Amino acid sequence: MEWFLIFVSVAVVWLASLCKILHSSFYPNQSPFLNNNAGSIQKKNVLLVIAHPDDESMFFSPTINQLTSRGHNVHILCMSTDGIGDVRKEELYRASAILKLPLQQVTALDHPDFQDGFGKVWNSNKLAKIVEKKIFAHAIDMIITFDNYGVSGHCNHRDVHQGVRRFILDTSKRYIEAWELVSSNIVRKYSGPIDIWLSFWSVKGEMHCLVNEHPLRSYAAMSQHLSQWVWFRKLFVSFSSYTYVNTLRKINNGQVL
């Protein structure tokens, strides 16, 4: 009986949380992220730096959906194609189209020094140089990427973070902001929409909580990655908190590597 009550309670909170998220798709909230002191939106050229095709759909779709719905110009720089080149690129392009991103603003690299896999360390200086070229080519105002843990702990995610931080520390363009996706513990990670409440409560300082206003769009985007669309990733997209909410934290320019 006690287990039944616990199950029912969790189900009720889950459904209430999902209703809250779906409600936001009809009545978008006015997130303070990227607003100026007067409360109006400052349109930005944003660069999302990821490690692999499907990172954008599995982890960053709440951020992408909020930015595009508010008129920000979002670019994606994907550092690796997992060793299967054109297949993963096409999947990334199709997913990006679902997420309302122009294909000319999506770049997927197939660089010999940035191949997918554990134990393959990506050089942060080389990565920083690639980020720098993209920044200046598209007049980027802001960068978004993984934090130092990289959500799943994947070494490539962490290397991307280090490369972006290297660029931020080395560049003279101090007006460029950088934000990182905050990694959560395993309980929160698989709490689905329930994590929106925990995320709101945990935000402090230079952090922002972005609720996904189009969760079904995120699921549809991930389904475009057919080479990766196996049963456990379907479950991940359904139950991961990163489908429903992102917490972004500002990267301190003065922070030591």
Automatic annotation (TrEMBL):
The keyword Signal applies. Residues 1-24 form the signal peptide. Gene3D superfamilies: LmbE-like (3.40.50.10320). Transmembrane segments: none annotated. It holds the Pfam family PIG-L. Coiled coil: none annotated. It is an enzyme of class 3 (hydrolase). GO terms for cellular component: endoplasmic reticulum. Keywords: Signal. Its EC number is 3.5.1.89. One of its GO terms (molecular function) is N-acetylglucosaminylphosphatidylinositol deacetylase activity. Belongs to the PIGL family. This is N-acetylglucosaminylphosphatidylinositol deacetylase.
